[in-house]
Amino acid sequence: MSDGVSRRSFLKTAGASAAAASLAQVAQAAIAPPEAGVPATPTLGPDATDVTLSVNGKPMKLRVDPATTLLSALRMECDLTGAKEVCDRASCGACSVIIDGRLVASCMMLALDAEGTKITTVEGLAKGDELDPLQLAFVKHDALQCGYCTPGLVVACRALLDKNPKPSLSQIKSGLSGNICRCGTYTNIFNAVLEASGQKPIADSAPV
Amino acid sequence: MTATKTDVSTMPTTNRPMNAGQSVADDASRLDGIAKVTGAAKYGRDKYPAGCLFAAFIRCPWGKAELVSHSADEVQKLPGVVEVNVSRKEGLYHGRDMGYICADSPLALKRAMEALRPVWKRGEVKTLIEDDIDKEPEPDVDTGKLLDAAPLKLEAIYSTACQTHSSLETHGCVVDHQGDSATVWASTQGTFSFRDGLGEALKLDAGQFEVKCEYIGGGFGSKLGGPGKEGLLAARLSQKLRKPVYVFCDRREEHLDTGNRPSSRTLVRLGVQRDGTIVGGQIQTWGGVGVARGGGGCTVPSNRYKLGQISKDHKDIAFNAGGPRAMRAPGHPQGSFAEELMLDEVATLAKIDPLDLRMRLASSVLQEQMRLGAKLIGWEDRKLTGSQTGVIRTGYGLGTASWGSAGSLAEAEVIIHRDGSVEARTGAQDIGTGYRTIMAIVAAEAIGVPVGIVRCSVGSSRLPSGPGSGGSITSPIMAPTMRMAAEDAREKLLAVVATAKKVELAALRIDAGEILLDAKAIMSFKDACGLLPSDAITGRNAGRKRAEERGHSNGVQFVKATVDTETGVIRVQRVIAIQSCGKVLCRKTAESQIIGGVIQGLSYAMFENRLLDRVTGAMVNPNFEWYRILGPNDMPHIEPVLWSKGQTKVCALGEPPVIPTAGALAAAVFNAIGAPVRSTPMSPDKVLAAVASGAKNERGAPAVNPPPNGKPENKKPGGGA
After folding, report:
1. Mean pLDDT of B413-434
2. Residues of A in Cβ contact (< 8 Å) with B376
3. H or E element: which one contains B456?
4. Which residue of A has its CA nearest to B596?
5. Where is the domain boundary, A93, A124, A155?
6. In chain B, is it the N or the C terminus that has fewer CB atoms within a 10 Å radius of its CB?
């Protein structure tokens, strides 16, 4: 399509997604060599492309521009706005999701690259009305103020506890070091994680 | 436990004792906590109405530049582009809006921005306060005489870097104009000022549209004062195009053009008696206000300490950078940084303990708070300033805060429904302070029912009018207002009960959800509501205010920190933050406010710095990699102490806890290494320079002034103590 070619000639973002697609091709080629004459993967884009994502156990059929990040797809196409766009370059953790058990900044991943994975967002942590004990501990210890970083931090804490069910305080600090909170709720978050992992929150000095 | 069964108003915790007071609600958690931890809370930036358009400003990329050419005509033809408008030729700061682009998706907008290919001609820039100071101002004649006569003198320059608000939800809003009505989802600290600023752009009367801000992702002062350019752009476009329009800054724009805490510079010349008495002197401050005309005030002296006869002058300096906006206690942390470190330097000069010095200079309330803080931090373990020789040295410091009260008339409503539920209604916004929860607690207490049955609606211009969240006035104004509305509702309900039961109204009370007649329970609150002749009764404050219920706040913070003298890295160990805030309405949110203030203060002291390129004027760190804010790994143990001894008024809490922290940490660092670091951020390079200079001086002698903002030190005042 001439329209597509001319767009691609100046669209940096489309170029980035093409590069990502070709990287994926290389990776796939290394695992399973393509049959002669058959391309290993179809070229995706520049026009809108179908993708099926598995989000919180549900399949989501979407049609997205190939340059769409997973974060944008979740927020704008799936109405899952718990993950926030704060820095758009993986330096704040507000867009954290869990993909196949790993904590991922969804602003740094293309929606197309998330196909075939299992994505858990903050909206998927509660089982129906039953909150994740971690979420309850957040509320109990007031581990939130404005709440904008909170979904990312809840997800990061869940990913930490999945790997390390009884983290020490320093392990909690390291485990959350990809997240920032501007209101300043960190100490209460530490207490929430300690409580959710069956440990005692940090005690302040006794009254004097 | 399930979400539906969880009563967040009774979630006791045990890790934090109440040291010096009591609260109305000890065990209540935020009423919106579950919405926030599940991702259900919808912020303005989370609204994507069907058919929504996306717009953003074209921004000047340099401190000063002329737009020579661009490809707007070609961009206009790109798929998805709705409108391109270049309206300005010259930008005088990095981030200045020069026009805008509107497109049908965020990606189309991004591609259009990249395709605009603007060509700029850069101009010469100024980026620092120091660019405007040729020579340090001399003291006036009287002050000069006073200084000459004093046996000890302190002469020093303190500086603080510019701090951006760094609200995690950026500035902006979504406007859906539907002809004769409109809905606006805004990220604002002032629901009503946002509404008042939009009418003209929307071409609608105030009653024709609603501004909603149920959840706000931080503001810290930058989201006061109306819709701002983002709101106006969204409103004008939506009015013109009759489609929803979404305008939110990205992180870079947020750093550049949504306000900041301006940089400051403070010259101090103090005369001191041998016993440490400060006789007075000269304090000259400067504020770095970028392109703004003012707003750079630096609150030193704070008037919390008796400093003798001070001659004070202030000057705002303009240069090529985005201007300031109110930021959490505007002017105060800057001033406190200079004042607290100055006091520690005076104490060292006079060879007295800096806590003793402050005890002599401060009010009795502050003295009492200092005594408690000193016990909690373990002040007796403090070593003499400059006496340590190891690699890792430990220091102790303290700082103080105070805040007054101001207020305007506001409105609130409390509705008691026939089904026994209670609704507290106020249009003011909960920016994360816990306002929604506090209002429910106040209404519940005034009526005499458990908090759990009260719902609170906030953040809508359709609800009763309330103040903007600035100056720590929201609770001091709204708690008495909500209380009056709740009392009104209670009295109306009791009047119904009195009539139905044929008893004296004066003999009826409500307590813990029971209607009492002469202190004996006669029916439940719910059954009483069932007697209502109409669906509901509404209590109002009816244009009354109770200014006498507002009061002043005081606070003291103690910091214990270690300094690695080989790397220059400061690690804060513990912070004791004592804060009076009058009657504590909700303990958990109050403690959170204090902890948050301390964290922002530490972040300010150690990391935050809007770095402008000296040649181009461009901010080189408009992101969160290089504009560092304090993260989990930097966290000390923080103990908030609510000081409510004998207080019944509702006082400011949002702002005071951010005031003393930076100064207290600076004092602790000075105590540890024996030389002051007189400039924020107290980064490793400055700490190492201070350590090196301290080693050359005698014990405790003041060091050279570290260069502010990395500028070579070539204008320091002659002499010194």
Report:
1. 97
2. 205, 208
3. strand B454-457
4. A184
5. A124
6. N
Measured torsion, CA atoms of residues B185, B188, B189, B190, in degrees rounded to the nearest 10: -70
Are B443 and B372 contacting, i.e. CB atoms less than 8 angstroms apart?
A: no
Strands across the sheet containing B119-122: B90-91, B65-69, B119-122
Q: Is the dihedral of CA B18, B24, B26, B28 positive or negative?
A: negative
Judge if A144 and A192 occupy the same domain: yes
- Is residue A66 domain-shared with residue A107, that is, in the same domain? yes
Distance CA A142, CA B11 (A): 10
Residue B715: pLDDT above 90? no
Any idea which architecture B141-163+259-404+552-710 has in CATH?
Answer: 2-Layer Sandwich (3.30)
Residues paired with residue B245 on neighbouring β-strands, in sequence order: B53, B175
Q: How are the residues of chain A apportioned to helix, strand and coil, as percentages rounded to the nearest 5?
A: 40, 15, 45
Mutation choice for B interface testing from A187, A189, A191 by most B CBs within 10 A:
A187
Chain A contacts of B250, Cβ < 8 Å? 88
Number of domains in chain A: 2
For residue B695, the model assigns a pLDDT of: 67
> What does the alpha-carbon distance between residue B214 and residue B42 come to, in Å, rounded to a whole number?
8
Residues of chain A contacting residue B216, judged by C-beta atoms under 8 Å apart: 146
Distance from CA of A127 to the nearest CA of B (A): 9
Q: Domain ranges for chain B, please list them.
A: 45-123+171-248, 141-163+259-404+552-710, 413-546
Burial of residue B605 (CB within 10 Å: 0-12, 13-18, 19+) is: buried
Nearest to B281 by CA among B155, B147, B411, B158: B147
Tell me phi and psi for residue B694, to 5 degrees. Answer: -65, -35
CA–CA separation, A150 and A185 (whole Å): 9
B32 touches chain A (CB under 8 A): yes
* pLDDT single digits (tens) B349-384: 999 999 999 999 999 999 999 999 999 999 999 999
Q: What CATH architecture is B413-546?
A: 2-Layer Sandwich (3.30)
Q: Taking Cα atoms as reference points, which of B67, B62, B76 lies closest to residue B112?
A: B76
Q: Which of residues 573 through 602 in chain B touch A, CB cutoff 8 A?
A: 576, 588-589, 591-593, 595-600
d(Cα A183, Cα B471) in Å, to the nearest integer? 17
Percent of chain B at pLDDT > 90 equals 88
Buried b (16+ CB within 10 A) or exposed e, B354-386: bbebbeebbeebbebbbebbbebbebeebeebb
Are A88 and A119 in a shared domain? yes
Do A120 and A137 share a structural domain?
no
Q: Please count the CA atoms within 13 angstroms of the CA of A183 that sit on its side-chain side.
A: 27
Q: Is B220 on the interface with A (CB under 8 A)?
A: yes
Residues A105 and A167 in one domain: no
How far apart are alpha carbons B300 and B657 in whole angstroms? Answer: 17
pLDDT in tens, B25-69: 889 999 999 999 999 999 999 999 999 999 999 999 999 999 999
Cβ partners under 8 Å of residue A79, min gap 6: none
Q: State which of A68, A100, A124 marks the end of a domain.
A: A124
Q: Which residues pair with B264 in a beta bridge?
A: B160, B287
Cβ-count burial B626-650 (b if 16+ within 10 Å, e if not): ebbbbbbebbbbbbbbbbbeebebb
d(CA B216, CA B237): 23
Of A146, A172, A206, the CB nearest to B17: A206
Contact A81 B39 (CB under 8 A): yes
The residues, any chain, with a CB within 8 Å of residue A123's CB and separated by 6 or more, are A56, A80, A82, B38, B39, B40
Answer yes or no: are the C-beta atoms of B45 and B103 closer than 8 Å. no
Domain B45-123+171-248: top CATH class = alpha beta
